[in-house]
Design a protein that fits this description.
Oligomer: single chain
Strand content: 25-35%
Number of helices: 5
CATH class of one domain: Mainly Beta
Strand order of the largest sheet: 2-1-5-6-7-4-3
Number of strands: 7
Order of helices and strands: HHEEEEHEEHHE
Shape: globular
Radius of gyration: 23 Å
Largest sheet: 7 strands, antiparallel
Distance between the termini: 55 Å
Low-confidence stretches: 14-33
Helix content: 25-40%
């Protein structure tokens, strides 16, 4: 029969804490399944990232400002970002990372009828928009999450 001295008991407690911490970190670092699209929560965010894929460069993620109008998420894209979205191999779908969540199948719906409202909302939300709005923004998108199509079982 093994007996533990005071030193061994301290060692066992320390080791137990290490294993508990490792278990917590493993659970915390897992990707969030069942991400929830919540425009009200996203309205508090300064940026989101759009993900596109182009044949010559693969996957690329870039930050853009966002606004929420009538519980819908909108982004306003400059010429380079608009071109990237329009030449995306998964058009009309883009990836979106926002509020610590990732959505891989989000429809980017061109919304030129909202361009003026989005521009005003951007000016109200972002103090540096007084400079940014001077540049061309040829594409205003409403971001609509969709479930990816089911893949048939083999």
């Amino acid at each position: 029969m093994t007996t533990f001295s005071t030193g061994n008991a301290a060692w066992v407690r320390a080791l137990s804490r290490v294993f508990a911490l490792a278990a917590i970190l493993c659970v915390a670092s897992r990707p969030v399944s069942g991400a929830q699209w919540n425009p009200d929560a996203f309205a508090k965010e300064d940026t989101l990232k759009l993900g596109t894929t182009r044949p010559t460069e693969g996957e690329h993620w870039f930050p853009v400002w966002l606004v929420v109008i009538d519980r819908q998420v909108y982004v306003r894209l400059g010429s380079r970002a608009a071109n990237r979205v329009q030449t995306n191999t998964t058009t009309p779908f883009v990836g979106v990372e926002v509020a610590g969540q990732r959505f891989d199948h989000v429809r980017g719906v061109p919304s030129p009828e909202y361009a003026e409202r989005v521009s005003k909302a951007m000016a109200d939300k972002y103090t540096s928009d007084f400079l940014v709005h001077l540049f061309s923004h040829p594409l205003t998108l409403r971001l609509v999450p969709e479930e990816p199509p089911a893949v048939p079982a083999p």
